[in-house]
Specification:
This protein is an alpha/beta fold. It has one domain: Vaccinia Virus protein VP39 (Rossmann fold), CATH 3.40.50.150. The chain has 9 helices and 7 strands, in the order H-E-H-E-H-E-E-H-E-H-H-E-H-H-H-E.
């Protein structure tokens, strides 16, 4: 998570995106074909949703993780004792070549300063025959409902707002092409779905006010009346009482050639 500053505390991320990351993690690990007995690395671990899934399957001594945000690194370490959790960036991984059987990156490739370099680094630290996999929300075609509702509401106030649809990995096939460009073979791709339940509208809206990620940062930059108008536009699109939203992510996996 490099070109957007994630300065919010881990608890804020948990409320905003962490609940989606936790829902997505088991499906992503399955799609990546991670097997027991191997070693895996989580690149851009955040507070540790994917890391926790890897630890549950492989054991903490067989899991490494890295993130540039120090508060996320601290949270990931606390939540995954025994895992090798470090502070750093995807484009300069601190491990030797061929260190892992699988290197994964969940919801992060769009935030790398140089996504192609980041993927190349993921391949470097993965052994020949090992797996590199990444996933990112489908923002380009609206499959990530929470963010679609928000950015549609933003455009009621500012029709020229860019949103997140131009980010790396948010369009179908983009991650797969980057894996092929890094020299990975047997590349496959598809989609995954997460589901998150909300108690009510306030449970949906409040996390946007924590200034987490592009959406929260954009909201924080606006005047109070604009924020109120966006809130009202979101409210009009969502039901009363408890509700559940689906979120689609694009993923791709490839094999490091022998």
């Amino acid at each position: 998570m490099e070109n957007v500053q994630f300065g919010a505390p881990a608890s804020g991320y948990d409320r905003f995106m962490g609940r989606y990351a936790s829902s997505l993690a088991p499906a992503f690990v399955d799609a990546a074909g991670v097997r027991s007995g191997g070693r895996a690395c989580d690149v851009g671990c955040g507070p540790g949703a994917l890391t926790a899934e890897l630890v549950a399957r492989l054991g903490a001594p067989n899991v490494a993780a890295i993130d540039p945000a120090p508060q996320f690194v601290a949270a990931c370490r606390d939540r995954n004792p025994g895992a090798d959790v470090r502070e750093g960036v995807a484009e300069q991984l601190p491990w030797d070549g061929d260190s892992f059987d699988a290197t994964l990156s969940s919801l992060v490739i769009g935030f790398m300063r140089d996504a192609d370099h980041g993927v190349a680094e993921m391949a470097r630290v993965t052994r020949p025959g090992g797996t590199v996999a990444a996933c990112m929300w489908d923002i380009a075609t609206g499959g990530m409902t929470m963010l679609t509702v928000f950015w549609n509401a933003v455009r009621v106030v500012d029709p020229d707002a860019v949103g997140e649809s131009a980010m790396v990995g948010t369009a179908d096939g983009d991650i797969a092409e980057r894996l092929r460009g890094a020299g990975l073979v047997d590349v496959t791709s598809g989609d995954l779905t997460a589901h998150v339940g909300y108690r009510d509208f306030d449970d949906f809206w409040e996390p946007f006010t924590f200034a987490v990620g592009p959406a929260g940062t954009h909201l924080q930059s606006l005047a109070a009346d604009q924020r109120a108008a966006i809130r009202d536009a979101c409210r009009a699109e969502l039901p009363d009482g408890p509700f559940t939203l689906a979120a689609r992510a694009w993923y791709a996996r490839g094999t490091v050639p022998s």
